[in-house]
Amino acid sequence: MGRIRLHQFAPAFGLPNASPFCMKVETYLRMAGLPWEAVNDGDVLKAPKKKLPYIKDGDRVVADSSFIIDPLKATRGDALDDWLDASQRGVALAFQRLFEEHLYWAAVYTRWIDDTAWPQTREAFFAALPAPLRWILPPLARRGLRVQLQGQGLGRHSAAEIHALGVRDITAVADFLADKPFLMGERPCSLDATGHAFLANLLWAPVDSPLRDAARRHPNLAAYCERMKARYFA
């Protein structure tokens, strides 16, 4: 099988990617030891679902991080998760949903809607685009995320309420991780691709927020991210 081409945003904030979903897929590819290369074009208009990441794997074009990873497990092996039993798989899926369907939206609010962080977010995601896209797309993307936050429900709360919900998620992850080296135990699994991407984006991105403050109050989360970085991004 050939090399997988990962289409994503360019690295930013000192991270492999400022998009946790792009960083999730890159982390998974590194963890799984698959042959891949990054295409850091950041062009959502060329993406099948008008969002990043997506991959080209031979003749197949696949969008959305979960739809990317699940077929790769089927076609290229699943050594990361083959040791999990049914109960562990259920727990891993529940925590994946916590990261991607709840904590994500609290982080979106802090980056994209909060006026303090918006200039940094705009620079991170759109500075590499050619004119006039880097001027046209940022307000459109911001407006679209504001609408999505309203539809998802989190955007109907006050800033303090949104932050409180996100802090509860972070505390739950820290309590679950405890003193384990990886989220599900002694061995890494695909959930760690998600966990590392989302937690590193909270801890290491230079965006001040109550969410980053909360994550920094848990030393085990910082140690976990450092452990993942040393193992897969050295």
Could you characterize what this model shows?
- There is one protein chain.
- This protein has 234 residues and is of the alpha+beta class.
- A hairpin with a 2-residue loop joins strand 3 (54-57) and strand 4.
- The chain has a four-stranded mixed beta sheet with strand order 2-1-3-4, with helices on one face.
- The chain is globular and about 45 Å long.
- It is built from nine helices and four strands.
- Helix 3 (86-113) crosses helix 4, helix 3 (86-113) crosses helix 5 and helix 3 (86-113) packs antiparallel against helix 6.
- The mean pLDDT is 95.
- The chain folds into two domains: 4-76, Glutaredoxin, CATH 3.40.30; 86-232, Glutathione S-transferase Yfyf (Class Pi), Chain A, domain 2.
- The longest helix has 28 residues, at 86-113.
- 58% of the residues lie in helices and 7% in strands.
Task: Give the overall shape, derived from the CA principal axes.
Answer: globular
CATH architecture designation of the largest domain: Up-down Bundle
Oligomer: single chain
Sheet with most strands: strand arrangement: 2-1-3-4
CATH topology of the largest domain: Glutathione S-transferase Yfyf (Class Pi), Chain A, domain 2
Counting structural domains, the number is 2
Major sheet summary line: 4 strands, mixed
> Which percent range fits the helix content?
55-70%
Order of helices and strands: EHEEEHHHHHHHH
Instruction: Give the strand content.
Output: 5-15%
Overall CATH class of the largest domain = Mainly Alpha
State the distance separating the first and last CA atoms. 25 Å
